[in-house]
Amino acid sequence: MTWPTHALLGINTLWLLTPLSPELLGYDFGTLAACAAFGALLPDLDASESKIKHLKIPGTKFKPFLLPAQVVSRTDQHRGLLHSLWGVGLATLIVTPISLWVGWAPVAVLLFGYISHLLGDASTKIGIRVFYPSATRFYLLPQGWRITTGSFAEEALLVPLALLASSLLLGSLI
Questions:
Q1: CA of 45: how far to CAs of 9, 20, 66, 79, 116, in Å?
Q2: Cα(55)–Cα(82) distance, integer angstroms
Q3: From 21's CA, which of 29, 63, 68, 162 has a CA 20 to 30 Å away?
Q4: 3-class secondary structure, 147
Q5: DSSP state of 75
Q6: How far apart, in whole angstroms, are the C-alpha atoms of residue 61 and residue 34?
């Protein structure tokens, strides 16, 4: 899947938090949406070209993920380690200590976004190697329903995902 689809899938994981009170979350949904979208882009550090590789710190030309993306994409194949349960575990180990400073909600939604990326890619014709390094591919959808990355079907999926995300974010303002 392409980065806009992944970002919207990540943002839509915030629906899981709607039963919780704003006081318990400690953050507004806009901030959490940014964390979820960022988490949804992280697995593609292993892609030779990815959106996360080119993200810049606002107001600068500095791309903090350029070097890690170059290292990971040279040492591992796309949809390899970072697109597996090992990747989820590694991301969890790296970001969980951050919760001591920022609280649990941003870290949780970042991981929700990460997992949404894997579920999105598992919905494609290529699938993911969830038990990496095993070559066995995991598919979330039956064969006839799997999406080709960048296809019209994926583009069509953007509309309901954007509507759901918009209603979630607008609803959180009320």
A1: 17, 32, 9, 10, 15
A2: 18
A3: 162
A4: strand
A5: H
A6: 20
- Are the C-beta atoms of residues 165 and 18 closer than 8 Å to each other? no
Q: What is the DSSP letter of 139?
A: -
Q: How far is C-alpha 12 from the geometric centre of its chain's CA atoms?
A: 10
Place of tokens 């290529």: 126
Q: How far apart are CA 47 and CA 79, in angstroms?
A: 8
Q: Which two tokens stand for residue 170?
A: 């607008």
- Both structure tokens of 35: 């964390």
Closest residue by Cα to residue 68 from 58, 76, 80, 60: 76
Give pLDDT tens digits for 132-173.
999 999 999 999 999 999 999 999 999 999 999 999 999 988
Amino acid at position 63, single letter: K
